[in-house]
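Hi P.,

Sorry for the delay on this. The queue was packed all week, but I finally got your sequence through. Input first:
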Amino acid sequence: MTSRPRDRAVLDDVSKAIIDQLQDDGRRSYADIGKHVGLSEAAVRQRVQRLTETGVMQIVAVTDPMQLGFTRQAMIGIRVSGDVREVADQLVEISAVDYVVMTAGTFDLLAEVVCENDDDLIELLNSEIRTLPGVTSTETFVYLQLRKQAYHWGVR
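Then the structure:
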């Protein structure tokens, strides 16, 4: 999901309850959600479709990269000269990059990457990331162990 500056979505209590139900269990049936929020299965389906089409939420399978053969994950801090947005737009096109955020502080960008092994990470850094126009330096933070990964922060 690409996050660009935009107006905050205005959600009614029913849409918030649907999101809460799906954050708890993304495989929950529309009929079950409907029972919890007081809507028919069809009405829940329409609400979920609207929420996904407008970019409020995604419904995806969250996997464990290690279980799928991707043994190296890292966060890369990137310093940029020039327009940070241009470098960010180039980073999002790299398949090994799964998260890009513009930051204030030591780094202009943070990019999370998932690679099969250390050799792939080195190749990614040297051939794809450090060669991007505007990239002046990088610092790589290799993940040793993932202790928490959560996607249930509720709705406001």
